[in-house]
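Minutes, methods subgroup
Present: GH (chair), OT, SY

1. OT presented the first of two proteins processed in the latest run. Sequence and structure tokens recorded below as shown on screen.
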Amino acid sequence: MIYSPSFTIEKLTFRPSTKHPPPIPYKKIDRFYPKYDVCLNGPNDYSECIPANFPQCKSNEQLCYNRLNRRDKFYDDKVPHYFIDYKRVLCYPSDWAGWGGCSSCTPGRWCNEEQRCILDEGQYYCPSWAEAAKTREERAAQKGK
């Protein structure tokens, strides 16, 4: 059993390889960015992720990375850096993609254009969020006609 302050997981299956496998391909629920993502590899060791430490999902599941904000490192615009904690990487049903998927950044929201998590989405402009809101408003207007 693996214990984390926020949840308990009875069983996780990890890839048996100790070598770094190729980058994880695009997933509909979440994405792994080897160039940008860092993992917690030990106490205060934020460094390159070891994909072999991520759980192996079933064929009808996909990984969700549930990135966490750091409290010791910030960008110039005061947005915190994020990291992946292996204990928080979980397999979610693939059909969750249609319901908004998982939370790539907890707390916060992923900004595609900047390839990073943004802690306070209400105080930050990300073009893809504005486009998504516009599309939702247009669909709602069409339903009203």
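2. SY then presented the second protein from the same run.
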Amino acid sequence: LRHAEEGNLGTTLDDDGNLFVDRSGDLFKYVLEYLRSGHWLLSERGGDLEFVAVLRGEAEFYGLDGKIMDMRLPVPRISEYVTVWQFRDDTALYVDCLEQTVREDPDHQGLFRLCKYSGGLPLDQQTCTKRFKATSHSIQAVIAYFAMRGFSLQHVLESS
């Protein structure tokens, strides 16, 4: 309300003197719930990158931008995945995944090395996926390693 009184909220008054804010009511219900409880209750929408970005903008509009880090608005997580692949006529196996997927495993003991051809840079800026080269030349061994870590095989593509 302080922002409305200062004229920073972009509001108008209706004929009855009620405050009118021309913003999304769908987003405001999340802001209002935060103001009531001190928690962002987003349910399944918390994993939606676009929704959380728009909600951050809405929070800033209502003057919550100074508290954005304290608001505990979640940073959306991208579902973790691993891609295992091989060049035709090459025995080396490559793994594209988040770096912590293989680095945080104390048992990996050098099973994967950061691929020097990608320069250790992320393959894309949104997920920060990196490319690793497996020390094993057995696709079964690499897939078994990730299966032990809780990953499941979704697709197999082969080309001749």
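Chair's summary of item 2: The longest strand covers residues 129-134.
Next meeting: continue with the remaining queue.
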